[in-house]
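Closing statement on the molybdate ion sub-project.
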Amino acid sequence: MISVGEAKAILSKSCPIGPSTSVYLSDSVDLITASDITAPIHVPSFDNSAMDGYAVSWQKEPIPYKVVFTIAAGDVDNVRIKSGTACRIFTGAPIPKGTDTVIPQEFVIKNGDTISFDAGKFAKGANVRTKGSQSIPGDKVLEKGSRITPGTVGLLASLGIAKVDAFSPPSVGVIITGNEIKEVGTALESGQIYNTNGPIISSYLKKMGMRSFEVFHISDDPITLLKSIENITNRYDFTIISGGISVGDYDYVKKSLAEVGVEELFYKVKHKPGKPLFAGIKSGHMIFSLPGNPASVITCFIQYVKPAILQWMGFKDVWQPASYLQLETPFSGKSQLTHFLKSKRNKGKVAILPGQESFNLNAFGQADCLVEIPEESPPLKEGDIVATYEW
Ligand SMILES: Nc1nc2c(c(=O)[nH]1)N[C@H]1C(S)=C(S)[C@@H](COP(=O)(O)OP(=O)(O)OC[C@H]3O[C@@H](n4cnc5c(N)ncnc54)[C@H](O)[C@@H]3O)O[C@H]1N2
Ligand code: MOO
């Protein structure tokens, strides 16, 4: 059995980076750029006014300027005015030829069709956004590997870039195993339980912005399971399987994965919950088989599946950094396993919630993080510092 750190190191080394595609700007937020992006045009593409006011050819001496023309945003830049005259101008309008400075209207004294102002308050060129002052053609505006934020989208739109080369999210097939599993919205019969892992995994995938995923419910029949696993692992970039990976007589998943040619990266990690976690790879497709208990599913998803998906999508820092907080509750269990415990943060401290059994979902409604207690940790008391991870 390998440690948590070893499992993460294997995934870092083995999980591929997926292909990139050309994506519409409107669909690109939260993706990672797959190439450097350079400016194709000057921005601004013309000298324009930063203020509502008057455009003049700046002169040191205070003189009255006759207002001879008006120009607004969107108007065409085809006027030239003479020195000693002014043009009424609005924010975003092109600077008329023959002018170089904009005086905001609140600094101007109007007298009929002339204006005057204190020239000493303004330098030549004031309130003019010059052509190319943001970027000129060929400027590198984004490095390959940048995360596209709403701000990035704004930057690229300002440059007229409609599509961006970005790493796409993987397609994901989710297999829910178990004859006892029923969907919510149907009545339970004896021995049955509701499918909680399907909704949990789907919610995480949605939260991560996955656009293409499907959930399949497969019975614990070895032939059906084998065929489904073969089909789904071939079709999807990631396959996430819930349940059937332990040592029970109906746990056929591990055998099926081997039969369809999935190369094992690891099986069983020294952590709790989720010990019998399996990770594998087949023709560049990743396969995770998560132990069926819902707490194991959440822990394994957060700690291993999510980072692997982020790595596929070109993210660099895929391992969620821990936040270190003071314990509000003692922890006495000593074991050779790393524990991930459903916990709740409160005013800079963290409390381990009661009901940590991996089948027990009571704490799911309150938990907002997992506390990590490393292998062989001595008992911990209130006030000791522990690592916590977003839930
Ligand atoms: N003899 C041993 N038995 C078990 C061991 C072991 O080492 N020796 N490991 C235990 C551990 S730890 C875990 S975790 C489980 C994992 O078992 P499986 O991955 O084979 O999962 P299942 O048996 O299919 O299910 C376990 C549990 O979870 C419930 N479940 C399954 N799917 C769902 C779902 N979609 N929604 C809600 N609940 C689900 C299922 O009914 C079981 O109660 O093995 C232990 N056994
Ligand atoms: O690994 Mo299992 O501890 O029951 O979730």
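The chain has a mean pLDDT of 95. With this model delivered, the sub-project is considered complete and its resources will be redirected to Aim 3.
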